[in-house]
Amino acid sequence: MKPLLNKTTKPFIIYVLIILVISIPLYYFVVDAIWKHELDEHNKIVAEKTSSQINSLKLSDEKLNETIKLWNDVQPTTNIRNLDKNDHFKDSIFIVEKPHDFLDFNDIDRFRCLSKIIYLNKKPYRFNIETNIEESQETIFFISATTVILFILIVGGLLFLNRRLSKSVWKPFRETLDQLKTFSLNNQTKIEFPQTDVTEFDELNQSLSKLIEHNVSVYKTQKEFTENASHELQTPLAILKNKLDILLQNEDLTEKQYHIAEEMNRALSRSSRINKNLLLLAKIENNQFDNSKIHLDELLNQSMEILQEHFDQKNISVHSEISSDIKVNGNIGLTEVLINNLILNAIRHTPINGSISIKLNNSVFEVSNSGTEKLNSDLLFKRFSRFSKDNNGSGLGLAIVKEICKSQNWTIDYRFENHNHIFSVKL
Q1: Residue 336 belongs to what H/E stretch?
Q2: 265, 244 in Cβ contact below 8 A?
Q3: Domains of the chain, each with CATH number or no CATH
Q4: What end-to-end distance do the CA atoms of the chain give, in Å?
């Protein structure tokens, strides 16, 4: 998971980097074009100024030739010469690369050249001038270096400003988040969201306040329903069961009547169990249980002692590997229900003379029993899903186990290995 600030900053940095990389050749071509234009204009001005100044001297042809020779000697970057026979009287601009004529080292430089026709004493001459252009490698280097420095300054400034601004801009959001983390439906503490002048955060706080108020109201209603149902439904069911027990003890019942009453008693007992389990599921889903530190190994040993009679009835051999001093965070009542449901489920679906294995350590609680084929994992933990013809159960045992694990931040997993059904609770 990445902070929102990183998600927004990274695309911006990539975008800036792409623009700056593209700008390097763009800067070079623009600067090079401007520089060449300025050099061409400079060379043209020098040619026109030279022609104007020499003509202003009003020299004779002999003196003009001497002046041209002297000019060519003292101006290494310009040259005035007579026209060739095949000269087309056209001006030209070009670039040459060569060493400087008057420097000792032989490094190659670029020169922007102008070859232009000028008139001296009304006679045409070919005027050549060359001006040194900056090195392209140097231009690219300095432009690239400048771009890199600008990129570092932009990115560094952006990260610095984002961190400074995020502390103030996102402060109301973080305070709201901290309030939500501490909120619990069990405590129903009222949340006072901080005041903010940001429209989006203000709308978020208002929406959260309405949502929490609605959830608290629904939670109270569901809690009242489960409490009322627990009392109102269990009482008549208990009365009916008691009356049926009395009826079954009546010696005047015929055999047919006795079987009917017995079937009614079994159905009523199952209805009572289903009612209790549904109420338990509702309480778990409404977070009506508090967690604390419990000794899981002691709780497991107690349950196995209580259920020993069920093992003996089907002559089931039990193999246990229970580590000592296993402490977990959970609700002791719910954890006892989870242990009993998994073990009773294994007993119910293990054939006579079968075997059950129980394992407990710091990371997992595991119950396995012998079987013939793998069960459907998609339906295994759904309510009222059945995988055998046994109707004694309520069809809610594994669904309750799933909800208990969810409420205590555990995970339940099923697998089929070596003809054994294995239920693993990762603690």
Answers
A1: helix 332-348
A2: yes
A3: 4-155 (3.30.450), 199-285 (1.20.58), 292-426 (3.30.565.10)
A4: 24
Residues 6+ apart with CB under 8 A from 45: none
Residue bearing tokens 């280097």: 141
Tens-digit pLDDT string for the chain (427 aa): 566 666 777 788 888 888 888 887 888 788 888 888 888 999 999 999 999 999 998 889 899 989 999 988 888 788 899 888 888 889 899 888 877 666 565 677 788 899 999 999 989 999 999 888 766 667 777 877 888 888 888 888 887 887 777 777 778 888 888 888 877 766 666 777 878 778 888 888 888 888 888 888 887 787 777 767 766 777 787 888 888 888 888 877 788 888 888 888 888 877 777 777 777 877 787 777 888 889 999 999 999 999 998 898 989 999 999 998 889 888 998 999 999 999 998 998 888 888 999 999 988 999 999 888 888 777 788 876 655 555 455 568 888 889 889 888 899 999 888 888 999 999 8
Distance, CA of 55 to CA of 61 (rounded, Å) = 11
Greatest CA span in the chain, whole angstroms?
Answer: 162
Residue 415 is inside which H or E element, if any?
strand 411-417
Nearest CA-CA partner of 130 in 88, 82, 76: 76
| Residues composing the chain | 427
Long-range contacts of 1-8 (CB under 8 A, 24+ apart): 5/162, 5/163, 5/166, 5/170
Contact 272, 237 (CB under 8 A): yes
User: What secondary structure does DSSP assign to 98-155, as a single string?
Assistant: E--TT-SS---EEEEEEEEEEEETTEEEEEEEEEEEPPHHHHHHHHHHHHHHHHHHHH
How far, in Å, CA of 347 to CA of 344, rounded? Answer: 5
Residue 135 DSSP class: P
The answer to whether the predicted template modeling score (pTM) of the entire model surpasses 0.70 is no
Q: What six digits make up the tokens of 43?
A: 């060379």
Among 339, 352, 282, 272, smallest CA distance to 311 is for 352
- Beta strands 364-370 and 355-360 are antiparallel
The one-letter amino acid code at 33 reads A
